[in-house]
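Give me the fold.
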Amino acid sequence: MRSFPVPRQALAALAVCSVAAGLRAQTTELNLWVMSTTEQQQQDMRELLKPHLATNPQLRVNVTVLNWESAWPKITAAAASGQGPDVIELGSTWVAAIASMGALEPLSDAQLREIGGAGAYFPVMWGTTRRPDDGKTYAVPWYADARAAYYRTDAFKAAGVDPRDAFANWGSFKQAMQKINGVEVGGKRIAALGYPGKNDWNVVHNLAPWIWNAGGDFLSADRKRSAINSTEAVQAAVYYTGFAAEGLVPAGALEKDSGQIEAGFFNGQYAVIFSGPWLLKQMSTPKARGGQLESVAARNFAIAPYPAGLKGSQTFYSGSDLAVMKSSKQKAAAWKLAAFLTGREAQVGFSKMSGMLPTRLDAANDASLTSDRHYAEFLAQVRNGRHYPTVAGWGPLESVYLKNLGNMFDMVAGVRGKYSPLAIKQAMDAAALEADQVLAESR
């Protein structure tokens, strides 16, 4: 058979194709799902990933940003089908449920040593990385959300109220709110307290510290029954809703969500609100970049703990974890990515981007963060943080609580029946009954 010479151009083209094919073969592609936590999540993630991609030039990371409101069905569908991403962000209350579906790769002893183990993280957040029925670790804490009181120092001064006394306990806090309500600051009357009603998805988060500080909880000690209608939990709900019933929370606030309440704090509507660390970022960011640096509130605020109930002063502490999906075909690379994002430098960087708290102790106490006086104040207040009970069925259970507890604000507003302690007890009895059914179905 006769052979023909191959033109030089063709040889060059073949060589280029061979190199390209080789590069494609060497490239590792990972899919990462994260929640929408910052104003520009895609851009911020690209910035956050730069050091990791620089040291791993063969790696490509495709980032998908999910909205919190619609993420749960997408994540459970991915877990059930085995068609999910390589690395996934999970709300800290979701890890047990997704792990129970067999969708998460447990961490090995070597991987646990690599990230410093439980001792490197806030204990509350490390407790969210496991199922309640086995000793394996399925995720790594990434960032945290906690709550504390933000108050207007000028309003307290105008009313002659000492913040140290005001936030000491439930009794002193109620008295302080009564004294501050309607005081004039800068020619404008200010309401004592602002919190949202049933139109906010934080209803359960907002009520949790008051329930815990009264000695109540959401589940029984064996986690088999709801405890939302216990004497202590009802006492907390009556105390909390009482601020609105007495007019210390404006009626209009009950129609708002958390973002609108925070905006009201910035523009001088409320002397006190309870919110998270992201407010610190907003009040240190110029308005030209979407912040509130120039607002009166940013120049006249401080942070305080939740007023102590009979059982202390605890706050709500939650957040997000990162996990490797069992369906990943690139588990080694996926783990390296998760370990990088949950490492000290990346956690400090993401905290500056998002305003959320790091979950690593060394990151949370990094000098570049603690040099901010208000950040240090906030961090000091949330060390008594507490998380919800870890159960696989918490997702649907929280929805039940959200609906039924939200109904209490209709009573306060006179939309649904007449407000009274008995009516609040009946609403919480209804929540407990429905919650018990959910718990029975999840077992």
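The domain at 148-316+391-442 is CATH 3.40.190.10 (D-Maltodextrin-Binding Protein; domain 2).
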